[in-house]
Amino acid sequence: MRARLLAEENRKWWTLASVSFALFMIMLDNTVVNVALPAIQRDLGIDVAELEWVVTGYALSFAVLMLTGGKLADMHGRRRIFLIGLAVFTFSSLLCGLAGTAELLTAARVLQGVGAAFMMPATLSIITATFPPKERGAALGIWAGVSAMALAIGPLVGGLITEHIGWNWIFYLNVPVGLVGLVAARLIIRESRDTSHEQRLDLPGLVTSGIALFALVYALIEANGKGWTSPLILGLFAVAAVSGTAFVLLELHQRLPMFDMTLFRNPTFAGANTVALLVSLAMFGVFFFISLYMQNVLGYSAVRAGVAFLPMTVLIILVAPFAGRSSDRLGSRWLMTAGMTLVGCSLLVFAQLQPDSSYFQLLPGMILGGVGMATTMTPMTAAVLSSVPVDKAGVGSGMLNTFRQVGGALGIALMGAILASGSNTALADGASKVDAFMNGLHHALYVAAVIAFAAALTAAVTVRSHARSHRGVDGVVEKPA
Predict the structure, then answer these.
(1) Containing H/E element for 478?
(2) What is the pTM of this model?
């Protein structure tokens, strides 16, 4: 009997190790690609708009399918969907490494996003099904720590691999790791599914949201090349508006919606998700274009660019747990407000960069951005989860992650459109390519700063004070945010 209990106890932690192993791959892929972008651009001979699709394609499919991936896991088995997602992610990583054109690489990255969208929500569901409530917090803490570590070392790992082996290998390395993960997950993880209530896919919601996001992102990325007033671009904006409106109306009237719009009646939930969208909108494009700036303008190597990001990512790891504990005592409202104000200030610092700036002029922006994002992200998650009934915590968490991924996809497209517009204007006035790039970069960073300050204002106005409990959308008294 004791041996069986010990085996069961060990199995739980091996299950956590298995899903964390796969999670590490997903989160590493979010940042490892950034420092490889100039090498990819040179090797494939592509322009900035095509390069944007390499990053945006992944974020877009990840965002559109994340809630569907979670629903499929509940319906058809969490281990099964996790294994399918891991297999898709591993196979698409091989295709990314083999890609010889921008089109093939973008298609493979979109497929990678599909795999990640199936894996990510399944990891949380598997942990919830495996661990009892008294141990769940520790397990989720390890899960979050693995995620943070992958995000932190991604730029450095990407730089080392790109400089000393080749950019293809940042994808090839996922293949043996994925194969080991598949075998381990098959042997260790037990199958589980949600049988508590009716399960149904929201296909109309999936189709309309996918069309709206794709049309909007495509229009933003291609507008400068095709013309903002061209029939194609105007038509795409119209399609995005119509499809987005149809999605909202469908979700309001669906019996089992993918996106539970009733949760937005709670101002804290609505505000925290808006902040999640805005912080990703402001920062994803910054990571993308600051990486290009460091390597293409300052002449940094891929490794040096990866090291340059370390102060920001390390500070996120160090400050986030402190911010989480502080949100339990102080509430999320003013922490999020202060955090997004710091992010806005970091973007203003970046906006002062010049073609001959030193790293010491980059460093203050990295420090402010790292502390600001850490002070925002954990309290933001706490605000969302405290503002929904317990039985909808999974839905609330999934919607938060969707907003973050959508913001990332739109952020690269929007900042790219602003940068391209500013660069084209400067080139028309006779500026050099470097000066034109800097002109566009400054415009994009100022807009990103405005977005960050808008997020700070949103947090201050909408997120309820920790001192006042309030009722949720179903009349349930909630823990203050």
Answers:
(1) strand 477-478
(2) 0.80
